[in-house]
Records
---
Amino acid sequence: MSILPKYAEVERLRAKAKKRIPRFAYEYLDGGCNSEVNLRRNTDEIRKVLLKPIYLERITTATTDTTLFGERYSAPFGVAPIGLQGMIWPGASEILAKAACKHNIPYILSTVGTDTIERIGELTEGKAWFQLYHPVDDSLRNDLLDRAWESGIRVLVLLADVPSFGFRSKEIRNGLSIPPAFSFSNIAQALASPSWAFGTAKEGLPTFKTLKKYMQGPMNLKHLGEFMNRTFDGRLDAEKLSSLRDRWKGRLVLKGVASVEDARKCIDLGLDGIIVSNHGGRQLDHGEAAIESLTTIADTFSEKITVMMDSGIRTGPDIASSLASGASFTFLGRTFMYGVAALGKRGGEHTIALLKKQLTQVMDQLQCQDVSELPARRLSK
């Protein structure tokens, strides 16, 4: 699919998304924690990375094909996990999963996504990844792992960076805290977004469909919040990781790594990969930008473990700068949701095509044949 010329910029997708969805949904997608310092810093620091072209090295057209965990993908980026995707745009999970499968990039389903493991496994022909919020109860954990494996999923992503809920004032104001509450203001916003409202009426109110079988009886929003607090423990430690390494037969990745200390523990415990991330600036406002953490971690450990990155990446040039800084692969969340919220069913494929076009242009301009050559094009600070 070619890109839609009117939306050849991620910022235009973002602006269109803001107009089409209720304010509470947009602010949930677009916001960060506290004063949103790290939300802005993430992207700002990526764009301080300078790249060096070498014009007299003749190459053929650049290729974005990338091998990761033995799989050949069409690009070095995938769809990051986002909770409550269906609240941001009705049917978003299915739209993005289908697009990712068609264009051969990984799609990561969150435990608190709005589609089931089984449905996403079916739509992606078993090529999806699954991000696990660690349950308090081992039997629930094991059942989730079994369901993921039976759905064809072979890459399990563990979430490390949510030992507490981020303080997000916009979500609190909009009633999206835990436990959440749906206000008259939110209802008015929904009615003022007719495309979103019609789609939601057709799809049904978003729920945590993967978790539905573990919930007893109908749950209002307050009960759902209490269930999440009671059922999941965001604190990971070496013992839990070791147990999961023993239990899971596929590839095991830790997401939310922001320190050399945690990266070293992952290597010691036999994990296959890490995703350097600060949860998109939604958890720790005065932390380091993800690109800064990446540079240190990749310089130290890239020969010992697969180092990937998300947080702050919005565009093809951002992907190029992240790869040049040591990431072997990248994930984007907000950009894909801007695309779907702006363009509906066309949004997933359009966004993939746009990012690939942008990335290929940067590589052609730098005279890079392959993404593995990008680190050699980074100018030292």
Note: The chain has 17 helices and ten strands.
---
Amino acid sequence: MRLKRTLLVCALALSAASAFAQRDAGRATSAREAYARDRQFCLSGRSHQDQQTCLREAGAALQEAQRGTLLREGSEYEQNKFVRCDYHKDPKDREYCMMRMRGEGTVTGSVEGGGLMRELRVLEPMQ
């Protein structure tokens, strides 16, 4: 009975170790693929950064991705874009800010050009 339990525990431990190894291998593969794409983009000259800075950033992103600490859109990114709206104390202004962050209204400018201008026009009845 004791031998069966020991074998079962060993089998579970091996199974878990195998699953973690596969996950890490998958993470490393996708990180290397992303790095190859980033590097190609840097070498294409289409980046708004100089080539050396772009390549350094791509390498840093590879290291963070391999560690599992690289944040991609969808995680904290989505939450953080609404944090800027906390500045507004008036609930109506805060809601308008959140609407702009969700993509309502118009957006002009670019990150490369120095920033984005988000505009939302709201019609309100006169009092």
Note: Confidence is low (pLDDT under 50) at residues 7-26.
---
Amino acid sequence: MSVRSTAAELMNTEVVVVSPDDSVLDAAQSLLYKRVSNAPVVRMRDKQRVLRGFICEKDCMSCFADGRIYSRSDLKVSDIMRVHPMCIRPQTDLFTLATIFMQHGFRHLPVVEDGVLLGVVSRRDALEGFLAHHAAYRAASPEQRAQMLPDFERMDTRQFIIG
């Protein structure tokens, strides 16, 4: 059993994305049709997805609930997206990733390098990673086990967070 232990190894690269120029109606329909709860907002540059923001079902729903979508049918994703979303680096390890999820309550985190979206890692991806890590830990020798866990008292998430 291989153990995926970094964001790059855990992330999903087949990510539903939207453009800042998309209408909120189109973005909401896309989220529903593709059965995802959120999407990175990207601009294409040289065939790379440059992260501009993040949008979720709640952002879209608030436009209906507060009436904005009824008075402004031209409402764009760029009008409601969260700019400068918290992102993580590809080398973020599993334990740091879990700490970030727990501290901030996010369900998904974009994995970004030099502003380019590489993928998205979810809490579910992290939990799958932990199950595989735990199985490997249980199968390891005592000497190997000592190398498999971080120093929990010295964990610092700041070096892995972008934005």
Note: The mean pLDDT is 91.
---
Amino acid sequence: MDFKDKKIWFPVAIGAIVICVFMLIIFAFSSKKGTKQSVSDKTKKETTATKAPTPTPTANVETTEVEKDAHEEVNNIVKQYFQYSLKGDADSLDKIVSDAEQVTKEELQRKYEYIEGVKNIECYTLPGPDENSYVVYVYYEYKFVNIDTLAPGMSRYYVCAGSDGSLKLLLNQVDDVVKDVLQRSEQNPNIISLKATVQKKYEEALTKDTKLKEFVDTINKTSQQAAATATPKATAKPKKK
């Protein structure tokens, strides 16, 4: 509270001294009250600043329209990822995957042991939290060994700029902001509809080809047993020729 413009006149008369003392008391009281209000206002401002919400990523993935095969570089990376994975080529994967230490040749061979090919790849993209980054939902159809009917499927990936500026496929090592965007992308109506369509096509393929259904059932059963007992996979499944 600023009192520099206020003036207090002191009469020469003795009686005025009493009035002066009275005014000083009022002045002191007013100053104390003003200081208290200033501190209170400052505290409120600091509290408000402390409680300010954390900014959310700019990518509004819940409502953004999904783009199909709209980014050629993203499409190429995804196709190369499947190509190198099928071959068990961990060295080539190192060029397009930002966390290549997550992949080994042995893991690739085990994962794609019964997959002969990956066909009809389609990339559905949403904007990521950073510039030149994408949430990518990939539709594909697996060609299993010795089975004619293709098995539809879908996987989600994150593609972003690497240290050299080129796009890389990031497998596991994502920060909290990226995790949040990936989770929120699942709420996008286009993605929900797309996943439902893929699930329907998958079920139709199993109904159409009993051989495919028996094979998938065997894989699922073996995976469950392996998870429960930590034993190697069963060898009763068809092998690559």
Note: DSSP finds seven helices and five strands in the chain.
